[in-house]
Design a protein that fits this description.
This protein has nine helices and 27 strands. It is an alpha/beta fold. The longest helix has 19 residues, at 121-139. The chain binds flavin-adenine dinucleotide. Residues 68, 113-115, 119-122, 124, 152-158, 175-178, 182-184, 187, 193-195, 236-237, 265-267, 269, 271 line the site of flavin-adenine dinucleotide (FAD).
C-alpha cells in the first residue's frame, strides 16, 4: 500500500515537472539501500508533504521540490547509502565560493545563509553570527567615516548578523527589500517550521523545535523591537562597486552607503521582477500570494502567465465575492502546466475569472488599474494587484560584483 503511494507520488511529481530539488538533497545509492525505511521516517517534512518514499523496497526521493535539505535522512541511514548533494544531472546549482571565514574571492565581501549553499534556519543564523565575527576582526583597525558593514537581507542570516553587529558595537546598516524573516515570511500560512534550537546574539536561545511560521516571525519581531536593531525596509540593493574612499559603495533604490565591507545574506529566491509602472509602490501591490482568503469580496488583478500567476488567479477566484482579472502580455499560457491552464479555462468559462491576453498594465491607482489591451486602454476597478512576473536570480548579481561562482551538478 505504502509502496503504491510512493510510486503514485513520484509519477505525479514527474508529470507536473516538480523534479528539481531547490537546495541540498539526498541522492540514494540503490545498490547499497537495504530498504529499512529509517530515512522515510526521519524526514521532518514528511508529515505535511511526501518527500521520501519506498518503491520496490528501496528509498526514493518522490517529492523532490518538497525537500529543503534537513539532512536527517542521511544521519539515520545505517549503510551510508545517502549522499547530500546540490543540483541534479539535469540542472546545476550556482554556489558562490567562500573561505572558512565566509569571505568571497572579492576581499571584504562576505556571504552567509542559504546563498552560500546551506539551507535551513539554524545554519543561516549560525553563519550570520560567524560572518560578523570575521568582519569584526577585519574592521577593528579601521578609522574611516564609512560604515564597517552593510548587511543585505533580513532573513534568518541577516537578522542574526544584525544582532551580532549590534552586540559587537560595529557600525552597520541592514537593508531589506521586503519584510523581516526572508523566505520564512513567505512560507504558506500556518506552515509548521522545523528548526534545531539556535543561539541568537543578545537574546540567547531560540528554543523552538517545531513552531508555526506566524509565531516564529512574531518572536523575531519582538526581538527586533526590544533590541532596537535598525533594518531599513523597502530598500533593494542594486549595485555594489569599489568606493573611491576604499571599501565599497552600495547603491539601493533609495540611498548610497559607503562601507568597509558587505555581508550578502540575500538567500536564493531572488528578487521579484517589477512592472515598473506608476502606482506600483502602493501597499496593495504584492509579488506573492500568502493567503488567498484575504482577497474575499475584492477586485483583484493578477499579472503574469506562468504557473505561479495562474495558481494565484485561480486560488483567489475561488474565494467568495472576488472579481479576478488575469492580465498577460502574450497570446497564450504556453509556459504553464496543462493542469493550471485547464483550470483557468474552466473558471473563465464559468465566469469566475476574466483572462486578458495581449495586455500590459500602464498604471495603478487606489481604486483602479489602467490596462492597455492591444492598443486600447481600459480602466478596471481594483482593490489589489498581484504581480507574478518571475524573479531575477542572485547568480547574475554575484557575477557582476566579481564573485566566483561554481555550478554544482548531481549525478541523478
Ligand atoms: C517552502 C519552504 C519551507 C521551508 N521550511 C523550513 C523549515 O521548516 N525549517 C528550516 O530550518 N528551514 C526551512 N526552509 C529553508 C529556510 O527558509 C531557508 O534556509 C532560510 O530562510 C535561509 O535564510 P537566509 O537568511 O539565508 O535567506 P532568506 O530567508 O531567503 O532571506 C533573504 C532576504 O534577503 C532579501 N534580499 C534579497 N535580495 C535583496 C536585495 N538585492 N536587496 C535587499 N534585500 C534583498 C530578501 O528579501 C530576503 O528577505 C524552508 C524553505 C522553503 C522554501
Amino acid at each position: 500500500m505504502a509502496e503504491r503511494a510512493g510510486l503514485t507520488t513520484l509519477i505525479e511529481s514527474t508529470e507536473e515537472g516538480l523534479i528539481e530539488p531547490p537546495t541540498l538533497h539526498p541522492e540514494i545509492d540503490h545498490n547499497l539501500c537495504i530498504g529499512c525505511t529509517n530515512c522515510v521516517a526521519a524526514c521532518p517534512e514528511q508529515g505535511s508533504h511526501s518527500v521520501l518514499g519506498m518503491i520496490k523496497k528501496k528509498a526514493h526521493l518522490i517529492g523532490p521540490t518538497n525537500c529543503i535539505g534537513h539532512g536527517a535522512c542521511k544521519a539515520v541511514c545505517p549503510v551510508d547509502a545517502i549522499t547530500l548533494v546540490f543540483g541534479t544531472a539535469r540542472r546545476g546549482i550556482d554556489i558562490p565560493l567562500v573561505n572558512p571565514d565566509f569571505e568571497t574571492n572579492v576581499p571584504g565581501i562576505f556571504i552567509a545563509g542559504e546563498l552560500g549553499g546551506m539551507g535551513l534556519i539554524r545554519n543561516a543564523v549560525e553563519q550570520g553570527k560567524q560572518a560578523i565575527q570575521s568582519i569584526k576582526k577585519l574592521v577593528s583597525k579601521s578609522h574611516s567615516n564609512s560604515l564597517d558593514v552593510v548587511i543585505i537581507g533580513a532573513g534568518p542570516a541577516g537578522f542574526a548578523a544584525s544582532l551580532a553587529a549590534t552586540d559587537s558595537g560595529i557600525r552597520y546598516s541592514t537593508v531589506e527589500q521586503e519584510e523581516l524573516g526572508g523566505t520564512v515570511a513567505h512560507f504558506p500560512r500556518r506552515k509548521m517550521v522545523m528548526t534545531q534550537p539556535a543561539e541568537l546574539p543578545i537574546v540567547g536561545k531560540m528554543r523552538f523545535k517545531e513552531v508555526q511560521k506566524e509565531a516564529l516571525i512574531d518572536f523575531w519581531r519582538n526581538v527586533e523591537a526590544k533590541t532596537g536593531i535598525e533594518i531599513n525596509y523597502g530598500e533593494s540593493v542594486q549595485t555594489i562597486d569599489a568606493s573611491p574612499n576604499g571599501g565599497y559603495r552600495v547603491k539601493t533604490n533609495k540611498q548610497t552607503y559607503d562601507t568597509r565591507s558587505v555581508l550578502l545574506a540575500i538567500g536564493r529566491r531572488g528578487t521579484p521582477r517589477k512592472l515598473e509602472v506608476p502606482g506600483e509602490e502602493l501597499d496593495k501591490v504584492v509579488y506573492r500570494v500568502i493567503d488567498a482568503t484575504q482577497y474575499a469580496n475584492q477586485h483583484v488583478l493578477v499579472v503574469g502567465g506562468g504557473d505561479s500567476a495562474l495558481e494565484a488567479a485561480t486560488t483567489i477566484a475561488a474565494e467568495s465575492g472576488t472579481t479576478v482579472t488575469l492580465s498577460y502580455r502574450s497570446g497564450s499560457f504556453s509556459r504553464a502546466k496543462p493542469k493550471n491552464r485547464d483550470l483557468v479555462q474552466q473558471m473563465s468559462e464559468d465566469g469566475l475569472l476574466r483572462v486578458i491576453f495581449g495586455s500590459n498594465v500602464k498604471s495603478i491607482s487606489d481604486s483602479h488599474v489602467e490596462v492597455d489591451i492591444e492598443g486600447v486602454t481600459e480602466s478596471i476597478l481594483n482593490d489589489a494587484v498581484v504581480v507574478s512576473a518571475g524573479g531575477i536570480l542572485p547568480s547574475g548579481f554575484l557575477r557582476a560584483i566579481g564573485i566566483n561562482v561554481e555550478t554544482k551538478w548531481g549525478t541523478q
